[in-house]
Fold:
Amino acid sequence: MIGGQKVLGRHALVTGGGSGVGREIALALAQAGVDVTICGRRADVLDAVAAESSRIHGIAADITDEHAVSGLYEKAEAARGPFDIVIANAGAADSAPAHKVSLADWRRTLDVNLTGAFLTVKPALSSMAARKAGRIVFIASVAGLRGYAYVAPYVAAKHGVIGLMRALAAETVKTGVTVNAVCPGYVETDMLDRSVNNIVEKTGRSAEEARSILAAANPQNRFIQPDEVADTVLWLCGEKAGSITGQAISISGGETW
Ligand code: NAP
Structure:
């Protein structure tokens, strides 16, 4: 139950569930009574989260590898039934001025954030439509809603995720499946720590200065917490959110609207 409503489904997939936002979503879904399969490339990190709840099961898989994703679906669905909920959360960001981005860096960022998100949800689409129920949520970013300097591949990928979400919402609109995206500003996770370290390395500023520069992007002058993102995802997975589809919800203290 979440806010007095039931989460729609018994089995969820959360990619990148071993850390940060994904871990928080996995724990929240498990707390709501859902069995959760989490994936990521590091098995030890997945095991640590699985140890926190008997409802959480880790399967190591790289979401940019279609073969690995289909293996994950086979194994998880054989054990715990078809996925009713898919949260495409795994992602990564590097920063550099656009003229210094190599083709390899561009492809790596598009692969994990956009192609990986597509590969994550694709195997669930026909099965959810046949069962006339399902919840798909992409963890995009405010970088999917407006431009930011020095993260061109990430901004392009996250805009692509919003486009993918809208296309899938249009395709599934009469099937009982909903497809939405949440778009956080800076969230206090390992990804944020990496951005802080990057600023420290490249500008010589202190970590404290770097954190206050990043926090100031949010008009509330603070970082979003992972549980704020998880709460919105849980609401979207609730049985009363059936009319919400095709939406990109900004969780950013008013950084975008
Ligand atoms: P995080 O702690 O670094 O989590 C990213 C997760 O994605 C990790 O668990 C990582 O696990 C997994 N991952 C990365 N590449 C993968 C791959 N190829 N295959 C499978 N799993 C992969 O960062 P986070 O902040 O929680 O990020 C979660 C999502 O929120 C991302 O989509 C990010 O873009 C989005 N977001 C974050 C912020 C922020 O400020 N933190 C803001 C807006 C949006 P492995 O390394 O073990 O594979």
Notes: Residues 15-16, 18-22, 39-42, 45, 62-64, 89-93, 112, 116, 139, 141, 184, 186-187, 189-192 surround NAP (CB under 6 Å). The radius of gyration is 18 Å. The mean pLDDT is 97. The chain has two domains: 11-185+225-242, 187-223.
